[in-house]
Structures are given as C-alpha cells and as structure tokens.
Design a protein that fits this description.
alpha/beta; three-stranded mixed sheet; globular; 4 helices; four-stranded mixed sheet; 141 residues
C-alpha cells in the first residue's frame, strides 16, 4: 500500500484526544491511596477552579508533539493555574507547556527502582517538578 503526500495532508489528529495509556493500579491498596489523594484535595479545594489533580494518567511531553514518544504516568499529580475540567490525558503542548507542580509515586516491588531512579530524573530534569515524593505503603518510606 502506497500513501501519497496528498493523502497525508488529509489526516487530522484531534486536539486533546490523546488517551491515557497507563496500566491499572497494582493492588487494591494502591487504588485506595490514589482515590484518597484525589478526593482529599478536591474536597479541600472544592471552591477552586484553577488546578488539575488526578492520577494514573499519561502525561505526554514530546517536544515534537508526538504521543508515541516521551510520556510518563505518575500515580498522582497536581498542576496549578489550569482549568479544573476532566481530561483523557495530560498533553503538555496543549496545556501551555505546563508540567505538574506535585507528583507522588506509590511504590511497589515492581516499580520502586524506576520510581526512585528514572522517573525521579525525568520529573527533576525535564518536568522541573518542584515537589516529587514517593511512598511505600509496606515500609512507610
């Protein structure tokens, strides 16, 4: 099959239609902790409309604006100074270049090394997230 250049011009990718691609939470405890974080913040800030808080949602941050490269899915994150509305994913280039102000990872045996290493580096060096935390529900670290 040959695709000609004119056909490529016809392809239109809808804005903000990048779905999250995160796997389900590992345990019931992880899910309960995520729900507690989201619900607590939404209750405390119930009168605010200038933040987005959610979790287990893909953040797309490709400088080339491609969903196929450069993406991560924190367990929980908060972005300030944005409209409080539902999203299918967080797409940095469609959110005025805004990255999370707070990220929390809930550690598990299968994610702890990545959360303490690669993700910490990405959130620190690329996202420039000022508040990154991890929590191990087993050891309470």
């Amino acid at each position: 099959m040959v695709i000609v250049e004119d056909e490529l011009k016809e392809i239109i990718f809808p804005k903000s239609d990048l779905l999250s691609d995160e796997p389900p939470m590992e345990t019931e405890l992880h899910l309960r902790q995520l729900m507690l974080l989201i619900q607590s913040l939404e209750f405390l800030w119930k009168d605010r409309q200038d933040f987005y808080a959610f979790g287990n949602l893909t953040i797309y941050y490709s400088p080339n604006q491609r969903k196929s490269e450069y993406f991560r899915g924190p367990d929980f994150f908060v972005v300030l100074g944005v409209a409080r509305k539902p999203r299918k994913s967080w797409v940095v280039w469609e959110e005025e270049g805004k990255y999370p102000h707070v990220i929390i990872e809930i550690l598990s045996d299968s994610t702890a090394e990545t959360d303490r290493g690669l993700k910490k580096e990405i959130y620190q060096e690329t996202f420039r997230t000022p508040n990154y935390f991890w929590f191990d529900p087993t050891s309470l670290e």
